[in-house]
Design brief:
1 helix, globular, mainly beta, 23 strands, 7-stranded mixed sheet, single chain
Length: about 280
């Protein structure tokens, strides 16, 4: 076992109107996902998701067990989706070495005991984004290179939301128990990530914003459609979006984001639209 994982307890939508900015950020924003030389994780009680980052910074990093998940090793009862948002790196899983270039996605199933993150030859250094959910069975490990998943072109330049969506772990791609995961890249000149906004009443979704210039920010919308709130989000920061919360956002520059979900089902299109004319 290793150090404990900070926990975020589940919230009810009726709590949102009484929260100030600091409370909203404390509950739903993770601003320290990537810390050099550490595996940094957060446990949210929304669908029992664990998310965070691993930054080897020149030294291999093992993924260990934690008291909060009551397991001898991390993947004893869980599965894990990994996206590399840094330079090239490797993930070793029970002796099998997987090379992850920037933007690659790796799925590791239940039962894998030893997981180690390391840098590759890229001087920039790897930064692995981790998204984990409970798993009831084991699926084989699978590596997907950028552009090899299911690619969907969405939006329009006229509405500033032209984007390329890469589905990696999903019902018609890499198999998993719960996890649905992919990467969306906004085209130059586009800043809206999803519009209309929507909810997934049967799943929790988390966003990791990245490739955002240091001086830029994303205004992330959350809450219920008649009681919206917003969070100002920087590069490589993550958002926890409960099933009752809509999620959409607009940046001051183009960016990319990792989206990942866990919950009742794996249907990507199982969502309830929240048109902009309905938002308050």
């Amino acid at each position: 076992m290793t150090a404990s994982i900070p926990q975020r307890y589940a919230t009810h939508p009726e709590q949102i109107p009484g929260m100030d900015t600091a409370q909203l950020r404390e509950r739903f924003l993770i601003d320290d996902v990537f810390v050099a030389g550490e595996v940094r994780l957060t446990y949210t009680h929304h669908d029992r998701i664990v998310l965070g980052g691993a930054v080897p910074a020149g030294s291999p990093l093992p993924l260990t067990g934690y008291p909060e998940i009551r397991s001898e090793y991390f993947l004893e009862h869980r599965e894990l989706g990994i996206v590399n948002v840094g330079g090239a790196g490797t993930v070793t899983a029970d002796g099998e070495v997987y090379e992850l270039v920037t933007g690659a996605c790796l799925y590791l199933g239940r039962g894998i005991r030893d997981v180690v993150f390391a840098d590759g030859a890229d001087a920039a250094g790897a930064q692995f984004y981790l998204f984990s959910a409970p798993a009831h069975t084991a699926y084989p490990a699978a590596l997907v290179s950028p552009g090899e998943g299911t690619v969907r072109e969405l939006g329009d330049q006229l509405t500033s939301n032209r984007r390329t969506l890469n589905q990696y772990i999903h019902e018609n791609g890499v198999k998993s128990c719960q996890i649905v995961m992919g990467v969306t890249q906004l085209h130059p000149g586009s800043m809206w990530n999803t519009m209309p906004a929507h909810t997934h009443d049967r799943r929790t979704e988390c966003y990791l914003y990245f490739d955002l210039p240091d001086e830029a920010r994303v205004v992330h919308l959350m809450g219920e459609r008649e009681e919206t709130r917003h969070l100002i989000v920087g590069d490589r920061q993550a958002i926890i979006s409960p099933s009752w919360s809509l999620h959409s956002g607009v940046g001051t520059a183009a960016y990319s984001f990792v989206w990942a979900m866990a919950g009742e089902n794996q249907s990507f299109d199982d969502m309830d639209a929240a048109p902009i004319t309905d938002l308050r």
